[in-house]
Amino acid sequence: MKPLQITLFIIANVIFITQGGRDIHQLIWGSESSILDQFSPEKTKAMSEKTEVLVADYRSVNEQIHALEKSKGLREAQDSQEHQELYQKRDVLTSEISERETKAREYRDVWIFTAYGVGLIILGTVLYRLRATWSGLSVVIAGFTIFEYWVSPSFFSGASAEFHALLVSKTLLTVVALIALYVVWRLIRISPDETKA
Q1: Maximal CA-CA distance, the chain
Q2: What is the per-residue pLDDT for 169?
Q3: HSE (CB half, 13 Å, CA atoms) of 108?
Q4: pTM of the model
Q5: Which residues have CB under 8 Å from 67's CB, separation 6+?
Q6: Which of 31, 74, 172, 173 has a 20 to 30 Å separation from 91 between CA atoms?
Q7: Which long-range contacts (CB under 8 A, 24 or more apart) does 8-15 make?
Q8: Are 136 and 130 a contacting pair, CB within 8 Å?
Q9: Does residue 114 or residue 73 have the better pLDDT?
């Protein structure tokens, strides 16, 4: 049992330490904007605005497009060169708002599943200490696996404020996971017999 525990401990260390380095790299260099953004002012503007402003802009543009399509017809309005900018603006706003909604859901899920992973780690440690060694160890492994999966940084463009908040959370949780790994290792290394002496 001890060789397996040592092997798993080393593997978990490698995963969380490299994950921490990757998180820090993403925090420092990962959110750089593209030099091509200067050629897309609508996209740059959308990325810098607050979500509420984007929704208001989208509502306005969408209403203009609906009015245009009613007056000229769908096909004629879309084919008209003078209205292409309006359609492009709506597409950019749709993309940015969707990206932000996705990141908001991911941000929520990171914390929910991390809490679930922590719960499994605690449960597994208790089971292990109560002499359900294999059950406890497997539950601890499941908890750390969930932890590692959800603290991995995602790579995307757009919504830079949401990306930064998500990445800070994931970096913090990686450090918490590494600390938890050492705490659990310490608790598991001490056999239940040693605490009764």
Answers
A1: 88
A2: 84
A3: 5
A4: 0.66
A5: none
A6: 31
A7: 8/137, 8/141, 9/181, 9/185, 12/144, 12/148, 12/181, 13/178, 13/181, 15/148
A8: yes
A9: 114
The rounded distance, in Å, linking the Cα atoms of 103 and 115 is: 18
Q: How far is CA 72 from the centre of its chain?
A: 44
**Centroid of chain to Cα 181:** 21
Distance, in Å, from the CA atom of 177 to the CA atom of 169, rounded to the nearest integer, reads: 12
Residues contacting 117, CB < 8 A, separation 6+? 143, 144, 145, 146, 147, 150
Distance CA 51, CA 41 (A): 17
| Helix residue spans in 49-191 (DSSP H) | 51-72, 74-79, 84-129, 133-151, 160-189
Say how far apart CA 153 and CA 23 lie, in whole Å: 6
| Cα 23–chain centre separation | 11
Tokens at 77, concatenated:
């309005």
- C-alpha 34/C-alpha 16 separation (Å) is 29
d(CA 128, CA 95): 48
Structure confidence at residue 14 (pLDDT): 85
